[in-house]
Specification:
Layout lengths: L1 E3 L5 H12 L4 E5 L11 E5 L8 H5 L4 E4 L7 H9 L4 E5 L11 H15 L3 E7 L10 H6 L2 E4 L5 E2 L4 H13 L5 E5 L5 E2 H12 L4 E4 L2 H9 L4 H13 L10 H6 L6 H7 L1 H5 L4
Parallel strand pairs: 1-2, 1-4, 2-3, 4-5, 5-6, 6-9, 7-11
Antiparallel strand pairs: 8-10
Helix pairs in contact: 1-6, 7-11, 8-9
The structure holds NADP nicotinamide-adenine-dinucleotide phosphate (NAP).
InterPro entries: Ergot_Alk_Oxidoreductase, NAD(P)-bd_dom, NAD(P)-bd_dom_sf
Length: 278
Amino acid sequence: MILVTGATGNVGRNVVRQLLDAGEKVRAITRHPESAGLPDGVEVLPGDLTRPETLPAALRGVEQAFLFPVFGSLDDFLRIGKESGLEQVVLLSSGAVTFPTPNWIGDRHLECERAVEESGLSWTHVRPGMFMANDLAWAAQIAAGDVVRAPYGDAAAAPIDERDIAAVAVRALLDRQAGEAHLIGGPESLTQIERVRILGEAIGRELRFEELPREQAREHMIGQLPPQAVDFMLDGLASAVGRTAEVSPVVEQVTGRPAHTYAQWAAHHADDFRRTPA
Ligand SMILES: NC(=O)c1ccc[n+]([C@@H]2O[C@H](COP(=O)([O-])OP(=O)(O)OC[C@H]3O[C@@H](n4cnc5c(N)ncnc54)[C@H](OP(=O)(O)O)[C@@H]3O)[C@@H](O)[C@H]2O)c1
């Protein structure tokens, strides 16, 4: 039995789907089983990594787990898992752990990686760069008009499709990989202005990028993320202006098939940009 935590998230939902497609027995935990919308064939149990009392039932009979990094809350999961026969953990981490200077996001994920490594369980870390799914944050603007306002339109990145992040994690589970850390990114360098144009092509509309001043963007983001994380992200965008982002061959190396392009991601999510988000 493979347990998927974070199963309702961008990555976890795809981990569930791909494990089912591979014929595996899958259990998922969520804090909201009634609205999880997970596919038939997966056993869905209530579970919360910050509430250890929910974990023994979730972990019973489980040998392998895809672990979502709820910061500061992995120790109980790892301890209870080990006591009940868990053998392998594939952790969703972040490429930010490899950055040369310490940063809030990388530091939190490093703590998660260390907790997993020190648990005595077999582990693999999946360290993605920027998710293509971050651009779903533009859906409300695109539903409301033809303009996307964001800071640093010329910042380049090589974002990765959540299906590819999941595929690397699933490969690690199916192959029972141990002691691997996969630094994964997308297959092409694109600026935000270019991504907005590609999104427009996917939904059959001409979209335009408009520069949002940093301070306005910061004000908006600060309600959703800790200030250190916001500044780290904005600094990252600022430093990516005028650059070409490094692309990564690792998805193809691990999965045996090419990573999805941004145009493929946009086509897959076209409906998310056509409807008005709830
Ligand atoms: N976005 C990026 O560019 C990027 C890049 C690198 C790394 N990352 C990392 O990737 C992660 C985000 O992944 P994602 O986009 O797939 O997630 P997501 O879509 O934001 O979903 C969050 C998931 O976490 C689960 N969760 C939250 N709190 C929980 C708790 N206390 N106990 C159990 N489950 C809990 C939620 O489950 P329920 O609500 O169903 O309980 C949900 O499935 C973050 O750690 C982020 O730092 C992101």
